[in-house]
Amino acid sequence: MKCSKFIITGVVQGVGFRYHTKQIATKLGLCGYAKNLPDRSVEVVVHGFDGSVLEMASWLKRGPAMAKVENVVEKVIDQKSYTGFEIF
Question: Acylphosphatase-like domain location, by residue (predicted)?
Fold first, then answer.
């Protein structure tokens, strides 16, 4: 199991990024959250099987169709218990 925090920059707010992230996370069996940050980036934390976190990381680099992802920074963090996937 792995827990990672991602900071995604680019055109990632106002394009359904968090909504689509939740759909992908649910499909992959990941728990965690997605939230907009004041600097117009998005923070995503996911917890689950290593392979699923890797698939999420790959998807975050593309994002939904309307997004223009410029950069994704991943940091492995201490595992936390999440129930489902939340949008903040």
Answer: 3-88
Distance, CA of 39 to CA of 8 (rounded, Å): 11
Q: What is the domain partition of the chain in residue ranges?
A: 2-87
42-48/68-76 β-pairing: unpaired
Let me know the angle formed at the C-alpha of 24 by 7 and 48, rounded to the nearest 5 degrees: 75
Half-sphere exposure of 46 (CA within 13 A, CB side): 29
Q: What pTM was estimated for this model as a whole?
A: 0.95
Which residues are tagged catalytic? 18, 36
Q: Which CATH class is domain 2-87?
A: alpha beta
Which backbone phi and psi does 66 adopt, to 5 degrees?
-80, -15
